[in-house]
Amino acid sequence: MKLAFSTLGCSGMPLAEVAAMAARTGWSGLELRSAPDEPIHTGSPWADRVAARADLGAATPVCVASYVRVAAGSDDGDVVAALLAEAGLAADLGAGAVRVFAGAGSPDGPVDGDPDAARLAARRLRAAADSLPGDVELWLETHDSHASGAAVARVLDLVGHPRVRAVWDIAHPWGWGEPIPVTARLLAPHLAHVQIKDQRSAADRTPVRLGTGVLPLTAMFDALGGLGYHGWLSLEWERKWHPSAEPLEAVLVAGREYLQSRLLPHR
């Protein structure tokens, strides 16, 4: 399987240094976090985008990791415009997709099964889908208000567009209580990308090295094997949100060794 990592684990690092780290560690794909505190984002001028693409070198920009929330806000036009701005950035960088969230609900909790939120998200994703540049896709992640595979699949079934697909982040459906085989089955028709990670406990989401925490990685890999998945496995090391976590490069080295010795031989 192809290995990638998110720049969430090295936020603010110049892209040439990120690409060099990718080359050193063998994690050749990149999820490029798109935010104003990163080297590249939707406000970056054309010259910066050209320079960023050059800085990436041999690394593969898998997707732009945006923070567009497709089930939040009151104005469809604003959300669609934000989606297309991120898609334009992805096209300029040579990335194949834009990661998005649902982002519905309130501080009181998720709205994983809310049909109104599903319809709102689907309407906006479908409106953007036919105007996407090049071959760029939109990928809705199992996250926040739509943490489960069931919730994401419900949205994508409503969208019904081949360029709007799913990201399976292992932590969120598991935390919601959805069994791994169920998530796999529900996301199977839509699955574009997989994020892997591990964490200290169910209550403590501090990132730890792969295989040393509580997330059911082996079960996930068994499920992916059953689906015949051959896409990217992307390590989302959330050091941006957990600054006490160890530096990303050491985690990448250890993670590659773990995958080679524990999981990949069983594929």
TrEMBL record:
Gene3D superfamilies tied to this protein: Divalent-metal-dependent TIM barrel enzymes
Native source species: Dactylosporangium matsuzakiense
Protein name per its UniProtKB record: Xylose isomerase-like TIM barrel domain-containing protein
Residue span, Xylose isomerase-like TIM barrel domain: 21-260
Superkingdom in the source lineage: Bacteria
